Amino acid sequence: MSQPTTTGQQKTGRVILFGATGYTGRLAAESMVRAGLAPVLAGRSAAALTELVAELAPFAPIDSAPTWQVAEVGDQGSVNALLASPADVLVSTVGPFTHLGAPAITAAINAGASYVDSTGEPPFIREVFEHYDSKAQVTGARLLTAFGYDYVPGNLAGALALQQARSMGAVPTRVEIGYFVGGESFGISSGTKASAAAIMLAPSFAFHHGGISTERSARSTSSFEVDGKTLAGLSVGGSEHFALPRFDHSVQDVGVYLGWAGKATRVASAASSAMSTAARIPGLSNLMHRGVKSAVGETTGLGPTKRQRDTNYSIAVARTFDGVGRQLSHVQVTGPSPYSLTAESLAWSAAMCLAHPADTGGALGPVDAFGLAALVRGCADMGLVPVDT
Prior knowledge:
Elements: E1 15-18, H1 23-34, E2 40-43, H2 46-56, E3 67-70, H3 76-80, E4 89-92, H4 97-100, H5 102-111, E5 114-117, H6 122-139, E6 142-144, H7 152-167, E7 174-183, H8 190-200, E8 203-208, E9 211-216, E10 221-226, E11 229-235, H9 240-247, E12 253-258, H10 265-279, H11 284-296, H12 306-310, E13 312-321, E14 327-335, H13 338-355, E15 362-364, H14 366-370, H15 372-382, E16 385-387
């Protein structure tokens, strides 16, 4: 049985965190509790949720203790029951989103509520903007996908770089974003591994010549100057492809690149090409998917320790170009470890959704949702700030 929570029409909204007992979910829950949001922690295990509430209670301000409610991703009714009002905010960390993301976003759309997630999976991001967007516009639901390390820093850096180019009187037509991690060796969580496995063989996308086009994951590479070093990244689909052209309508091309592969970036791109070709061979695709799933394993909830997170930091670099390929501007932002930044981003966006009800619904990028000035202030509070380069 779930812990009792307020039901019926709400005068004020609540924050519901679905997937609270996973690795990213637990970090987000702590950030929310410390921010005084009094979240409803949701997941499939009453025992795990009870334990988590007890762990977090000492960090909660008076009268802002978290509560819990059981919901199972395979039971749409139980996920729907998490929301009692359009003023509610449903934050989901339940992944892989490509396979498990539909129940939460469907519940939010049905309720006309705000929705935020932590995905970094290109197929799901594209589905949010191209499939769920129209449904959300009908009900007034506000959809904020990929609101973490992927891809808030790039949206921030990209918008600032576009603004910088405009301030010089230039017309930017292309934006390139690079994501990197500084500091010591960086570990990834079991959830990130599962998400990576879910998208490894799936098609990705890009924004070229003013429109979204399908392409394989890691199709191309690009190099960026970061803190005096030249670092390479693999192309990936991000929310920037949809959001930045809205911020500046002159933008015709957007490239987003992840630099986690380091010196193996070009090898990884070649391997992606080979895997993409092999996946089109009848019968071989299923074998490859089973092999990837087996390699990842079933263990969940694991990830870098706090000490490990404290030894690295997030980096996003953005640069803009004009129509003849001349670079116009360059912006670098740095912030906390990717997982810590994701937790803080989810908490901040939930608080913003509570404080600022949406006028209209639909799929939104970070700047769309809150405006650039508010995003800059919020990111600064999280420690994500522009640096001189």
